[in-house]
Amino acid sequence: MRKIYLFLFALLFITCKSQPKIAELPVEIIEPEFKIISIYIIQADLVVTEFEAVLKIDNPNNFASVLSSIKYELYGNNFYWVNGAANDILRIPAKSSCETKFRFSMNFINTNRKLLDDVIAMKQIKYHFKGQADIQFDVPKFPVYCVNFDCSGLSDVKKKAD
Q1: Residue 24: inside a domain, yes or no?
Q2: C-beta separation of 58 from 36 below 8 A
């Protein structure tokens, strides 16, 4: 009989010592959307032309996010154009969108002739923009979220006003 009381006492002690676990609510993440808004010619030289692309990022979530880093490849008219990376880019409010700019160069010697002709004529370029972005959501204790993006569309090539 003594053993039963000892067992019940031990069980009661263990039960009282353990803390109830509070279930954490899962956070539903909707991946941001990336889109090239425009491509501008900044400076055109004999062999190399400098460009600026405007990237729009839509944040469909109910909380803000920070685009902390990005690695990308950009193609024009199905031909490789440029790749790059950047850090500490921008903060995007909840249910909103923001734009950021990145610069790149085109060396005419290494460029496909069709893409070169379309850029010189300032025609629409069929772009393909893909890569990886690290996003920190404004949610306590939520880790950095890696987003793979892959978007395509049309963008005019314009001369940037001075």
Answers
A1: no
A2: no
User: What CATH number did the domain enclosing 72 receive?
Assistant: 2.60.40.1820
End-to-end CA distance of the chain: 94
Q: Indicate the number of domains in the chain.
A: 1
Domain extent at residue 95: 30-159
* Those residues with Cβ within 8 angstroms of residue 142's Cβ, 6 or more apart along the chain or in another chain: 27, 136
Residue 6 forms part of a structural domain: no
- In tens, the pLDDT along 99-132 reads 999 898 888 777 777 887 888 888 899 999 999 9
Locate tokens 């772009």: which residue? Answer: 127
Half-sphere exposure of 16 (CA within 13 A, CB side): 6
Per residue in 16-51, pLDDT (tens digit) is 444 444 345 467 889 999 999 999 988 877 788 889
Task: Judge whether 15 lies within some domain.
Answer: no
Q: How many residues in the chain?
A: 162
